[in-house]
Amino acid sequence: MIEIPLSIDKILKGDKDTNDKIIYQNDNFIVLEDKKHSKDSYHYTAWALKDIRSLIEIDINIINQLNQIKQILIDKKFIDESTKIFFHFPPNIWRLHLHFVQENHKFLADEYEVHYFNEIFNNIKINSNYYLENVMIKCKL
């Protein structure tokens, strides 16, 4: 079982007290207002409902699902085309989650830890095992 913080665990399990943070949900992902979200700079995260640990366990099916979520968030005007969309690797929390942040977002992570969604999408289309084979080298682990 994957260790995740209690607050995220409650949301993923459908705790009624957390419903106000849910932006969108389907059978595989739940999109939440991140704790770093503010009136000045939005920050949303899409969390895998299944036990997917990180970027190295994704495939084209997961990427396509996340791409659909991206489009839904654009259509609902939560985000726009200039939104930065990325994964961290290594992640702080070992449960697959994708960040959606405003263009003015200040990154606290090292540059090599930020993997942008469009780049990931292209790499997975070319080689379905790209991140399993390459991410450890890129992250200097």
Sum this structure up briefly:
With 141 residues, the chain is of the alpha+beta class. The protein contains 4 helices and 6 strands.
Give the proportion of residues in helices. 25-40%
> In order across it, which strands form the biggest sheet?
1-2-3-5-4-6
Largest sheet: 6 strands, antiparallel
Query: H/E order of the elements?
Result: HEEEHEEEHH
Please tell me the CATH architecture by its name. Answer: 2-Layer Sandwich
Structural class: alpha+beta
Summed up, the domain count is 1
Structure description:
This protein has one domain: 2-Layer Sandwich (HIT family, subunit A). A hairpin with an 8-residue loop joins strand 4 and strand 5 (97-101). Helices cover 30% and strands 20% of the residues. It has helices at 6-12, 60-75, 117-126, 130-138, and strands at residues 22-25, 29-33, 43-48, 84-88, 97-101, 114-116. It contains four helices and six strands. A six-stranded antiparallel beta sheet has the order 1-2-3-5-4-6. The protein is of the alpha+beta class and 141 residues long.
Note the topology.
Elements: H1 6-12, E1 22-25, E2 29-33, E3 43-48, H2 60-75, E4 84-88, E5 97-101, E6 114-116, H3 117-126, H4 130-138
Antiparallel strand pairs: 1-2, 2-3, 3-5, 4-5, 4-6
